[in-house]
Amino acid sequence: MSRSLDKDLLAHLKADDPNKVYKDISTVLTDLPDKELLEIEFLGKSHTLEQSVNYLRDGPAVAIPKLRLVQAFFVARQKLQAYDGSNPMSRSDVLAATAVILLMDPEHLKAANMRKRLFAAAVKAGKLDESKLRREKQFVDSLLTSRLYRHTKSPTLWSHRRWLLRLFMAHDVPIDIQSDIKNVIMVAGIRHPRNYTAWHHARFLLDQCPRLVKTMVVDIKEFCLKNYTDISGWSFLTYAITSIKEEENRRKNCSQILAEVLGITESFRWTNESVWVFLRNLTATELVGDQQFELFLTVNKKLASITPKDSDQWGTLDSARRWCESHRLPTVSIIAE
């Protein structure tokens, strides 16, 4: 793909003051609203703004033209290059420059690491306070939940968030894990379907507080039913169910969720692979008895009977049934006998 810029784009780049563009956009990213995440969108060529207007804003919603972001990125990169050359740069300037760079390129590892070094230096100097940690989390969560396709699944940003939460825990700063899963993980999962990076982070969160699993299972199930083609959500639901510590509660939740999902699957005639991989995996566990196994087979065969045999959907149903029959584990009661 050509990296050359067309004449019209070059003319726009030269017409605007890039330093003003950088200042406006970096201010938006660092002067965050109280207790709200930014909702950032990029505007393409079809949405032109007046020359002096570098973004649109309505409350937490921010729209930034891609051209303006490119201009701000060039300035931010120059600032960091000068900073590497022993040119003194304040903490706020580093945060502003790296914020612009990460908005432009969520996989910019150097920018993420520079932000980490600021916090590491604050820890060493004994100047780290809760407000700084929460502002950083607010910034990262804004990128992860905005309508930015690359950002919502960025391994670099999710890794940075995990590092940040470990810092929270090391300094006894409370984390609302349930809110994080509902308002960050699930939103990122909607913005970018099959968001394995986000759901992997959700496992990290649940592992920090296993007692929350029982209360979160219902929320996760509702997400999966609303996004039933998203296999990553179903995979996390299986993980959550099997992570419940008390055997009785684990078995009860498994039975209730399996019965509900089978019922809805039958009603809506779902034959997609995501749902049936979930159903076969859960049915094959030792938590499911013979009665529900028979229900699984009944629903599977009923849908297979009304699905053309030469279709991918029939193959999905047949494969799920055969896999479950061959991999099903004996139930706990059978093991006890």
How much strand?
under 5%
Major sheet: arrangement of strands: 1-3-2
Major sheet size, sense and barrel closure: 3 strands, mixed
Oligomeric status: single chain
Distance between the termini: 66 Å
Helix content: 55-70%
Query: Which H/E pattern describes the elements?
Result: HHEEEHHHHHHHHHHHHHHH
Number of E-type strands? 3
**Apparent shape:** elongated
| Rg computed from alpha carbons, rounded to a whole number of angstroms | 25 Å
Mean pLDDT: 92
Q: How many helical elements?
A: 17
**Low-confidence blocks of residues:** 333-337
Structural class: mainly alpha
Tell me what the structure shows:
69% of the residues lie in helices and 4% in strands. It is built from 17 helices and three strands. The chain has helices at 7-15, 18-30, 66-84, 91-104, 109-125, 130-145, 149-152, 155-170, 177-191, 196-208, 213-226, 231-243, 247-268, 273-283, 290-305, 312-327, 332-336, and strands at residues 39-43, 56-58, 61-65. The longest helix is centred in the C-terminal third of the chain and has 22 residues, at 247-268. The protein is elongated, with a radius of gyration of 25 Å. Mean pLDDT is 92; it is low at 333-337.
